[in-house]
Amino acid sequence: MDKFLVKKPSLGRSKGKLLGTAEETCGHPDCVGEESRGERKRPQPENAGTDGSLPHSPWQHIQAEGLSCDYRILFGRAEADEILQQLEKEVEYFEGDLTKVQVFGKWHIIPRKQVTYGDAELTYTYSGVTFSPKPWIPILLQIRDRVTLATGHAFNFVLINRYKDGRDHMGEHRDDERELVPQSPIASVSFGACRDFFFRHGASRGKNATRHIEPVKLQLAHGSLLMMNYPTNLYWYHSLPTRKKVLAPRINLTFRKVMASVKR
């Protein structure tokens, strides 16, 4: 669990397709691939104290038609290792009916562990299930505060997915639920094994696709932060496909801005 990689295209060469395979690795967690070192200053607020200094990792901007993301290493390797261990010990995942989702009218057990934490009285509904968050715990507040420090965005809710190995996965979907604050970003923080992460434009999905737009493939590093900015989730679906060769676990936290109440 010591080699991770994200690759992205140089902004002048490609229309969004990110090259690289799960087997390609880099010995340094800040590596974003030799093809693209285009540094771009994105989210502004970032003031580090002596007790919590941030790694000097530049923002990398990833763009395609209707897709806008920003990526950086947020936690150094030693700190990321420690956080992963704490998450494994302290996060309590949902059980029973909350481990099922509704797809095309049928209920399925999700192929991963899942839980939500957040501010009191918030709810979040997707795939036919309404989730009430558990109260924040210190390790999640620590991660959330670091994200806020790096981006200037304050989040009140987090969805956590634990993938025990490469057999656990996530199907194509958009994070466009009505409870989300309009045009707000989603901050995705990853710990653990490197997994392929895909974006696919809605017009290019399935047999009835109306356009051919190249998918975007990322490999997100241990301790990394991916900001999915507006309007990405209007047009692009994302997924984490099965990778049987991956044996180590991965924990992903997606921090969101959820509205306190939504009329249904």
Automatic annotation (TrEMBL):
Residues 1-57 are annotated as: Disordered. Coiled coil: none annotated. It holds the Pfam family 2OG-FeII_Oxy_2. It catalyses: a 1,N(6)-etheno-2'-deoxyadenosine in double-stranded DNA + 2-oxoglutarate + O2 + H2O = a 2'-deoxyadenosine in double-stranded DNA + glyoxal + succinate + CO2; an N(1)-methyl-2'-deoxyadenosine in single-stranded DNA + 2-oxoglutarate + O2 = a 2'-deoxyadenosine in single-stranded DNA + formaldehyde + succinate + CO2 + H(+); an N(3)-methyl-2'-deoxycytidine in double-stranded DNA + 2-oxoglutarate + O2 = a 2'-deoxycytidine in double-stranded DNA + formaldehyde + succinate + CO2 + H(+); a 1,N(6)-etheno-2'-deoxyadenosine in single-stranded DNA + 2-oxoglutarate + O2 + H2O = a 2'-deoxyadenosine in single-stranded DNA + glyoxal + succinate + CO2. It comes from the Eukaryota. Residues 154-259 form the Fe2OG dioxygenase domain. Keywords: Dioxygenase, DNA damage, DNA repair, Iron, Magnesium, Metal-binding, Nucleus, Oxidoreductase. InterPro entries: AlkB-like, AlkB-like_sf, ALKBH2, Oxoglu/Fe-dep_dioxygenase_dom. Its EC number is 1.14.11.33. One of its GO terms (molecular function) is rDNA binding. It is found in: Nucleus, Nucleolus; Nucleus, Nucleoplasm. 2-oxoglutarate binds at N161, Y163, H173, H238, R250, T254, R256. Substrate binds at F104, G105, K106, Y124, T125, Y126, D176. It is an enzyme of class 1 (oxidoreductase). SUPFAM superfamilies: Clavaminate synthase-like. Residues 34-44 have a biased composition (Basic and acidic residues). One of its GO terms (biological process) is DNA alkylation repair. Its cofactor is Fe(2+). GO terms for cellular component: nucleolus; nucleoplasm. Interacts with PCNA homotrimer; this interaction is enhanced during the S-phase of the cell cycle. Interacts with nucleolar proteins NCL, UBTF and NPM1. Interacts with XRCC5-XRCC6 heterodimer. Belongs to the alkB family. This is DNA oxidative demethylase ALKBH2. The lineage of its organism: Eukaryota, Metazoa, Chordata, Craniata, Vertebrata.
